[in-house]
Amino acid sequence: MNKRKLGFLLLVLLIISLNLATGITQVKATTKIEEIKATGDARIMEDYPNTNYGADQAIKLWYSPKEEGYLFFDLYSLIEKNYTSVMLRIHIGMSTSTTIQVFPVIDLWDEDIIEWSNAPDVNMSIMCSQYIPVTTRIGYINVTSIVSNFTSGFTRYFGFYLKPVINGLDFYSKESPDEEKHPTLEITVPSQPAGPSQPSIAGFEVTIAIFGMLGVIFILVINKRKITKKNPR
Questions:
Q1: What is the pTM of this model?
Q2: Are 208 and 99 contained in the same domain?
Q3: Are residues 178 and 209 in the same domain?
Q4: What is the pLDDT of residues 29-76, one digit of tens each?
């Protein structure tokens, strides 16, 4: 093999090995969970339309007689945030198997004065729902659509309105002495963007680079031996 062909082959091998080593490497998207605690919550009862239950340590949702709940979370910090999902987490006390529906509240309300008779209006066109079995102690309801409609500027938001489709449950309110059981939003946000990384060599790519370099060395050794045989000292 003449020097020109050998040089060209070495150059090709070197480029291929470096491209494989740096081009395949990508940064996988990773996520983290951020939490927002409820700053307002209450239940209302149809049988007691003029009674306020905002100080109760639990919120009961029941189909008949009707008991419904309201939760408020400050979502303004999410308007400029890049998030992928928002889950409502509730710690359940007494429960039957039920489906809970969640709607956005579109009027102001105060947990200290809210009653069945003065309950705020609700946007019934946007709904999130979740079936919760009787054995569930921590319930999760995906409320991403409600939050994203607000943070995108499409709808008003003054909290969540919750009601059961059948039967019911109760869950701990923000008045519970156990802060871990307070109603919480879990927001999933990317902690590292997906896409090509800066050139780096690691793991599988290191192996490729090494094999490429070994190929170069092997060809050099063979060529040197051939030259030595043709031109012995």
A1: 0.73
A2: no
A3: no
A4: 699 999 999 999 999 999 999 999 999 999 999 999 999 999 999 999
Same-domain check for residues 40 and 121: yes
Using alpha carbons, select from 124, 186, 213, 187 the residue that is nearest to residue 160: 124
Host domain of residue 107? 30-192
Task: State the pLDDT at residue 199.
Answer: 47
Phi then psi dihedrals of residue 25, to 5 deg: -60, 130
Q: What is the DSSP string of the chain?
A: --HHHHHHHHHHHHHHHHHHHHHS-EEPPEEEEEEEE-SEEEEEETTSTT---TT-SEEEEETTTTEEEEEE---GGGTT---SEEEEEEEEEEE-SEEEEEEEB-S---TTT--GGGPPPB-TTS-EEEEE-TT-SEEEEE-HHHHHHHHTTSS--S-EEEEESSSEEEEE-TTSS-GGGS-EEEEEEEEE--EE-SS---THHHHHHHHHHHHHHHHHHHHHHHHHHHS--
Number of domains in the chain: 2
Looking at residue 200, its pLDDT comes to: 44
Q: Which residues contact 140 (CB under 8 A, 6 or more apart)?
A: 87, 88, 89, 130, 186
Give yes or no: residues 120 and 208 share one domain.
no
Which residue numbers in the chain have pLDDT < 50? Answer: 21, 24, 197-202, 204, 206-207
